[in-house]
Design goal:
101 residues; alpha+beta; four-stranded antiparallel β-sheet; 5 helices
């Protein structure tokens, strides 16, 4: 069985000005709470290294903790889609890490 590892390169902080406020990782699934100083926006990014998939959610400041702690439930409650349907609109985890060939 291949071990999945999330690297710091998966976080877009260096690419587009997002600052990491919190992060957690377990079994190849990483969740990041990010803030943009320039736009004063908050988002939660989820990277699944095992599935090579990722998604992010724009969240209101008051809902940041809920979204960070329960990103799948938060997204489902807002009719967000996951997996293959999401790939059309969002980059895969490998692309976020700069591993696209």
């Amino acid at each position: 069985m291949r071990s999945a590892t999330i690297t710091a390169a998966a976080v877009p902080t260096a690419i587009d000005g997002w600052t990491e406020l919190a992060s957690r990782e377990n079994d190849g699934l990483a969740v990041f709470l990010l803030w943009s100083r320039t736009t004063d926006r908050i988002k939660v990014m989820v990277v699944d290294a095992k599935r090579d998939d990722a998604f992010d959610l724009d969240v209101a400041g008051a809902e940041a903790s809920e979204a960070f702690n329960h990103p799948f439930a938060y997204a489902a409650g807002r009719s967000s889609c996951f997996g293959d349907a999401l790939r059309v609109h969002r980059p895969a985890a490998a692309e976020l890490r700069g591993e696209v060939t």
